[in-house]
Write a structure and sequence with these properties.
It catalyses: Couples ATP hydrolysis with the unwinding of duplex DNA by translocating in the 3'-5' direction; ATP + H2O = ADP + phosphate + H(+). InterPro entries: ATP-dep_DNA_helicase_RecG (IPR004609), DEAD/DEAH_box_helicase_dom (IPR011545), Helicase_ATP-bd (IPR014001), Helicase_C-like (IPR001650), NA-bd_OB-fold (IPR012340), P-loop_NTPase (IPR027417), RecG/Mfd (IPR047112), RecG_dom3_C (IPR045562). By secondary structure, the protein is an alpha/beta fold. It has a seven-stranded parallel sheet with strand order 13-14-12-15-16-11-17, sandwiched between helices. It binds adenosine-5'-diphosphate and magnesium ion.
Length: 657
């Protein structure tokens, strides 16, 4: 059969098609259509079903295509500005309806009393009216397709050009047979044909399903190619760590690793042992235990006498990590800390110990990327909250490596669909399971007039010796207003708890003041902290069991989740109260989601669904790929299948994420 067709390669210029002369080619080119493939993938934006339906079956506001008899002489009314409306009464499927057409006065001559007419429009069932869109003269059923053509040419004309491709050519590309069979997909050719020339709604749906798959499949293949390129293969990347020593260290930990921690540790250690550079993202919710996984990797590197650097975005986090690593390793590793507040003298000393190789593990902020910070043998670079650093900052640190093994960590759970796409060039390890004994934070929603009840339960927690965070929203543009807001709330708590129990911290304070206030809360001198979202990152007070978020509707899901992550950090039951009178459906939905789950990944997926992938990371900058038909938020399943197929095809056996 193929012999009857001329085989096209998709890169051939559109001009080889009949009906595309130099003039038309130029017009097409002006809207980005250069090749035959561009023609094929310029898909209809809209379909109008030309098959006549029974008006009695239509619902209010349905778009309908119907046929009926003209009952009255059409009347045209003219308005100011040249606008006009034609009104005619018709009997359609036994229903007497008023049909109107805006700005199509010439239809008057086509609508003849006693004769039949076919038309499409919007049915206002309650008023027995149809807002006519157009009269239909085409014979038969099927669909009228509309292409996004600007003013370049008529959709009908373009559709004819598309028809040329299907009339005379066969395709030299398709999805692999095995993939088509497995997922019951059409050939790409047939799918495109159905999308351009559908006979039924099912045609459109089936065609689109195949093309979605095809787009995502090709995309995955390209990503894999890119990843292969970025993973440098060289014997020198083999870190032949001492497995016995590593196991002995893991045995000293006061707890057993969770299944997910073990899995991630294995993935990282396998990377280290391989002859390729590591380029891996470790994802896990706040409190899921990423730090120890990173620590184990650092220990592995140390068993061959090499160094690890851990870079974090803030001083607070640097202190925390430093403390936690020191507690964990005691004297097994030599650990140092370098931040913006390190004195010049201390820094010089640290740098010389780094250069001599005495320091095994250094924790620091941006201070680590400065040019005068040099290492002996830096073989593992760990970046926490990686999204808070710019590409160049990360690169500057990475460039100091003796062997470039990079582990990025993030506590922002990223929906799997997005992680496959935005981080497609990285391997991904996920800790989803929380350490045993953690109690999910009990979350509930209260309206403003129910605040008293919340105050009472906070008071009862405070009596037990626990602490509470009270968060008031801060929105940059209206700092004065927010300040008032925080202060109001502060006074409310003062009235209830008294000065000796309540601390206030907000963004307008001097850093020193802020630190003092925060310090009193951290040392448990004051159990109630009223603040703006300055507490979002880093603070760790395991004694805190209560989180109250005022105006909860003003926060996005991921911020709410981060804030809630400040409590539930011990074996005590913790609580989160969302105070809100949500005004919009969307706000209400967010609050409902928060009260229904504490799983960050589930939250992020629902967030993605609500916001769409474009919005999710703050539009475009993330470099999300654009697809013609596929939708990352919606086509999760297809992406998954396309990815597996691509992995199978490329023979890549790596099992990640
Ligand atoms: P994060 O993923 O937010 O960085 P951390 O690594 O700080 O989480 O871990 C949070 C707390 O849980 C720490 O106090 C840590 O010691 C503890 N932890 C980590 N892993 C386990 C485990 N498997 N069992 C019990 N506690 C654990
Ligand atoms: Mg952490």
């Amino acid at each position: 059969m193929a012999a009857m067709y001329q085989v096209i390669t998709p890169q051939k210029p559109a001009a080889i098609l009949k009906g595309v002369g130099p003039k038309v080619a130029e017009k097409l080119s002006s809207i980005g259509i250069e090749t035959v493939n561009d023609v094929l993938f310029h898909l209809p934006a809209n379909y109008e079903n030309l098959s006549v339906m029974n008006l009695a079956d239509a619902e209010n506001n349905d778009k309908v295509t119907v046929m009926g008899t003209v009952m009255t002489e059409p009347a045209v009314a003219y308005f100011r500005g040249g606008k006009n409306r034609l009104t005619v009464f018709m009997e359609i499927d036994g229903i007497y309806v008023k049909v109107t057409f805006f700005n199509q006065p010439y239809l008057k001559d086509k609508l003849i009393v006693g004769e039949e007419a076919r038309l499409s429009g919007k049915y206002l069932k309650h008023k027995l009216e149809i807002n006519g869109q157009r009269l239909i003269y085409e014979a038969g059923g099927g669909f009228r397709v509309t292409y996004p053509m600007g003013k370049v040419m008529h959709s009908k004309t373009f559709n004819k050009i598309v028809a040329e491709v299907f009339g005379g050519f066969s395709f030299n590309y398709d999805l692999p047979e095995t993939v088509k069979a497995k997922y019951r997909l059409l050939s790409v050719r047939e799918a495109l044909r159905l999308i351009h020339f559908p006979k039924s709604p099912a045609d459109i749906k089936e065609g689109r399903r195949t093309i979605k798959f095809y787009e995502l499949f090709m995309f995955q293949l390209r990503l894999m190619e890119k990843r292969q390129k970025e993973r440098v293969r060289n014997e020198r990347y083999i870190i032949d760590y001492d497995i016995d020593e590593l196991k002995a260290f893991i045995d000293t930990l006061p707890f057993g690793l969770t299944g997910d921690q073990k899995k991630c540790t294995n993935e990282i250690c396998r990377d280290l042992k391989q002859n390729v550079s590591m380029h891996r993202l470790l994802q896990g919710d706040v409190g899921s235990g990423k730090t120890i996984v990173a620590g184990i990797a650092a220990y592995a590197v140390k068993t061959i006498g090499e160094q690890t650097a851990v870079m974090v975005p803030t001083e607070v986090l640097a202190n925390q990590h430093y403390q936690s690593f020191t507690d964990t390793f005691e004297d097994r590793l030599t650990i140092a800390k370098l931040t913006g507040t390190t004195t010049r003298k201390e820094k010089m000393e640290i740098v010389s110990r780094l250069e001599s190789g005495e320091i095994d593990l250094i924790v620091g902020t941006h201070a680590l990327i400065e040019d005068d910070v040099l290492f002996n043998r830096l073989s593992l670079i760990i970046t926490d909250e990686q999204h808070r650093f710019g590409v160049n900052q990360r690169k500057r640190l990475n460039d100091k490596a003796h062997r470039k093994n990079v582990l990025y960590m993030t506590a922002t759970p990223i929906p799997r669909t997005l992680s496959i796409t935005t981080f497609g060039d990285m391997d991904v390890s996920i800790i989803r399971e929380m350490p045993k004994g953690r109690k999910p934070v009990e979350t509930y929603w209260r309206r403003y007039d129910e605040v008293d009840e919340v105050m009472a339960s906070i008071a009862s927690e405070v009596r037990k010796g626990h602490s509470a965070y009270i968060v008031a929203p801060l929105i940059e543009e209206s700092e004065t207003l927010d300040l008032k807001n925080v202060q109001e709330i502060y006074h409310m708590f003062l009235d209830c708890f008294g000065e000796e129990q309540v601390e206030l911290v907000h963004g307008r304070m001097k850093p020193a003041e802020k630190n003092e206030g925060m310090g009193r809360f951290e040392r448990l001198e004051k159990p109630v902290l009223v603040s703006t979202t300055v507490i979002e990152v880093g603070i760790n007070v395991p004694n805190a069991t209560y989180m109250v978020i005022f105006n909860a509707e003003r926060f996005g899901l991921s911020t709410l989740h981060q804030l809630r992550g400040r409590v539930g950090r011990s074996d005590m039951q913790s609580y989160c109260a969302l105070i809100s009178d949500p005004k919009t459906e969307n706000a209400k939905q967010r609050i409902d989601i928060m009260t229904s789950t504490t799983d960050g990944f589930e939250l992020s997926e629902q967030d993605l669904e609500m916001r769409g992938p474009g919005d999710y990371f703050g539009v475009r900058q993330s470099g999300l790929p654009e697809f013609k038909v596929a939708d990352l938020a919606e086509d999760y399943r297809i992406l998954e299948h396309a990815r597996l197929s691509a992995i199978e095809l490329s023979g890549e056996m790596r099992e990640d994420a």
